[in-house]
Design goal:
200 residues, mainly alpha
């Protein structure tokens, strides 16, 4: 399967998702600057969603930059990952309407969980497809986000914290997700900076 076409398709879908998210921002009817304050909850959820998409694309690009072989299983795993990601505009808009409400935050957490599972499945399918290329397998297994998401004690603690947050402070769910995104970005592999190197 042509890797470049799959990457181009994925990039296009992610660009559409980002476009839909900003279109959800409502222009205030009043011309007073203070009118923008009513949109602050959505601006917060949009900023987190934008950061989410940015980190997702970066890690996705790393996976495909390393992959030598793309199979039909990788293709469908990628579609599952995009499916989970495509719900982000809905989750972002709903959280923007009720940032302290349990319902929107629970839905956001569900979408994030689906995305997480899909990302792990995608990474594992790429590893399986490239099992004869040890350098590819080792690089993906060393990816910070992959190591975290496959380290079940850490994931269990995060899920427990998110459930507690939903019960006692729903907005804390976004804080936890944001911290994970920032952490995975700050502590990303140095090798990921070389992904555009022609020698790779």
């Amino acid at each position: 399967m042509n890797k470049a076409r799959l990457e181009a398709f994925t990039d296009a879908v992610l660009a559409i998702i980002l476009t839909i998210m900003i279109l959800e921002f409502k222009t205030p009817k009043s011309l007073k600057f203070s009118a923008i304050f009513s949109q602050v909850p959505y601006l917060i959820s949009y900023a987190i969603g934008y950061l989410f998409i940015g980190a997702a694309w970066y890690n996705h690009h790393f996976l495909f930059g390393k992959a030598k072989i793309i199979t039909r299983h990788v293709f469908w795993a990628n579609n599952l990952w995009l499916f989970g990601t495509s719900f982000l505009p809905v989750a972002t808009a709903w959280v923007g309407e009720g940032i302290f409400a349990r319902g929107p935050q629970a839905f956001y957490m569900l979408i994030y969980a689906i995305w997480t599972i899909a990302f792990v499945i995608l990474a594992k399918q790429i590893i399986k497809a490239n099992e004869n290329h040890s350098a590819v397998v080792n690089s993906i297994k060393k990816l910070t986000l992959y190591r975290y998401l496959t380290y079940w004690p850490a994931v269990t603690v995060q899920v427990a914290l998110q459930i507690l947050s939903l019960l006692f402070f729903p907005a804390g769910n976004l804080i936890l997700i944001t911290l994970q995104i920032i952490t995975s970005a700050v502590f990303s592999n140095k090798e990921s900076d070389k992904i555009f190197d022609k020698k790779e």
